[in-house]
Amino acid sequence: RDFSEKDVQWIAFVQRLKDTGMPLEQIHLYADLREAGDATLSERQQLLEDHARGLRESIAQQQRHLDKLNDKIALYRSAVKRGRFS
Fold first, then answer.
1. b/e for 7-27, b at 16 or more Cβ within 10 A?
2. What mean pLDDT do residues 40-66 have?
3. pTM of the entire structure?
4. What is the pLDDT of residues 54-70, one digit of tens each?
5. Please, what is the average pLDDT of the chain?
6. How many CB atoms lie within 10 A of CB 55?
7. What is the dihedral of CA 75, 77, 60, 10, to 10 degrees?
8. DSSP state of 75
9. What are the Cα distances from residue 6, in Å, to 9, 26, 41?
């Protein structure tokens, strides 16, 4: 089957929404709004802004977790370097 460039871009965008953790229900809502046309632009914008906000919060939380893990790794490296394995 042949897909237009626009089709390929749409599929890639939907995949990106999925990859960033947008629930399937919201992806379907976005697709329905898109299908409804330009009258839904502000609703689509709000949906994406809400998702982006949640994604930023998730990234910040993951960064805090990573920082704590790196602190623990540094502690172990220091202990290993000093020859303390307890």
1. eeeeeeebeebeeeebeeeeb
2. 98
3. 0.81
4. 999 999 999 999 999 99
5. 95
6. 13
7. -160
8. H
9. 5, 21, 18
Contact 85, 77 (CB under 8 A): no
Alpha-carbon separation of residue 18 from 2, 12, 43, 47, 83 (angstroms): 23, 10, 19, 14, 46
- Residue 53's nearest CA partner among 7, 8, 86, 20 is 20
* Both tokens assigned to 8: 């390929």
Instruction: Give residue-wise pLDDT tens across range 13-36.
Output: 999 999 999 999 999 999 999 999
Distance CA 73, CA 6 (A): 46
Take residue 21 and report the two structure tokens written for it.
């953790």
Nearest-angstrom CA–CA distance, 37 and 19:
25
